[in-house]
Amino acid sequence: MISKWRLYLKLLLEKLWVVALLYAMLAVLTTVAARFLGPWLPESLGETLGAGSTEAVLTILASSMLSVVTFSLGIMVSAFSGAAASVSPRAIAVLKTDRTTQRVLATFLGAFVYSLIGIIAIKGGLYSANSRLVLFIVTVVLVLIIVITMLRWINHLTVFGLMTDSIDKVEVATEKALTARIDNPFLGGHGHFLPPPPEAKPITQPKIGYIRYVHMDGLQDTAEEIGAQIYLAALPGSFVHPGKVVAYVLGPEMPKDEQIHDAFSVGDTRSYEQDPRFGITVLSEIAERALSPAVNDPGTAIDVLGRSVRLLALLGNEHGHELRFPRVWVPPLSLTDMFNDIFPAIARDGAATFSVQIRLQKCLLALAQIAPHRFGKLAQAQSEEALGRCKDRLIVSEVAAVASVAAQIADVAQPRVKSPI
């Protein structure tokens, strides 16, 4: 689990302006270092090697980088707008944290700041010939870095913000959250499958919004301090308000409310970080948009169904977990909820499209075959619901084909009784 300050630092480093600022600071340090490194070089070496051309190179670099940064920012904003319109506004969060885009723009901005400061320093007479030589060498290296960065940027622009690229990024973010939850199915605490003890005292959350992160270390420290047990009642992704209980405390004394409140990071929107269901929901939104009459793109919905199988299959087996917060009890991630996040909406909006219905049934069959003990009954329930939605929307032969796959799902979902022989 990530502590509160580390989470804040992680989220801060995902912001474009912070990455660009760090590169700009590096540029400033480089130009300052050139002044102090120059005297260590042999005298007149700078004049011999033509350090006088440094100013001209920096001038060209400064003017070109300003144009490139402006142009790249325009492309980035256009990509965000296009993704919001064609994919889902919830997919913008993962596009904003795209590392390639951040590094490219930060490199261009850093190069501009470096060039600008270098020109000012030269015009101000702060550099000797040897110091300008150091600056010239760094500039040559920087030009090579810019060329490589531009090649990466050109290659990246061929896919950035497109439908497939955006879905890929959502899937990767969801897979990361799912893998983290599989490794820590109860966020490092005890698994709790029943209601909290009746004598436990409820704690509500004064803020209104979505739980983005639960700081388990904070809850553990609070529980140890008062000698209590804390039972979570709301997982990341839950919508909370002053009337919503987020935790129950069982112990001889109650903690201060703010101690529990501070353990929950609440925001206006959901986050991929600790909430794998959010990624599944976003994929469902993408499929719904693709199936709308205005778009009419069943291929994207079929693609999303295939990705959902890959993601849900990760939950096919139960995994052990490390108990790091023994005073905190956490409810499990609901497989039923995750199935409901992805399949019913696609079944509803694609009820009149045979290709979507048959693919949905085959995806449910795949999940039932991957882990009959975990997915069988859930897949059967979703299969029967989807079949009921499309019976009156498809022709007889298509309904028969869909029903045939549904029958296979029902067969796989039936518990097997071992023969006594």
What does this molecule look like?
There is one protein chain. The longest helix is centred in the first third of the chain and has 33 residues, at 54-86. Helix 13 runs parallel beside helix 15 and helix 14 (354-370) runs parallel beside helix 16 (396-413). By secondary structure, this protein is α/β, with parallel strands linked by helices. It is 63% helix and 7% strand.
Q: Give the mean pLDDT.
A: 86
The helix count comes to 16
What percentage of residues falls in helices of 4 or more residues?
A: 55-70%
Number of domains: 3
Order of helices and strands: HHHHHHHHEEEHEEEHEHHEHHHH
Terminal Cα span: 50 Å
What value does the Rg take, in angstroms?
Answer: 28 Å
Quick tags:
alpha/beta; five-stranded mixed sheet; flat; 421 residues; three-stranded antiparallel sheet; Aldehyde Oxidoreductase, domain 3; 8 strands
Summarize the structure.
The protein has 421 residues and is an alpha/beta fold. 63% of the residues lie in helices and 7% in strands.
Write the SSE topology.
Blueprint: H1 4-13, H2 16-37, H3 45-48, H4 54-86, H5 92-96, H6 99-123, H7 129-157, H8 163-183, E1 190-191, E2 201-204, E3 209-214, H9 216-226, E4 229-232, E5 239-240, E6 245-250, H10 257-261, E7 264-267, H11 276-291, H12 298-313, E8 328-330, H13 335-349, H14 354-370, H15 372-390, H16 396-413
Parallel strand pairs: 1-8, 4-8
Antiparallel strand pairs: 2-6, 3-5, 3-7, 4-6
Helix pairs in contact: 2-6, 2-7, 4-6, 4-7, 6-7, 8-11, 11-12, 11-13, 12-13, 12-14, 13-15, 14-15, 14-16, 15-16
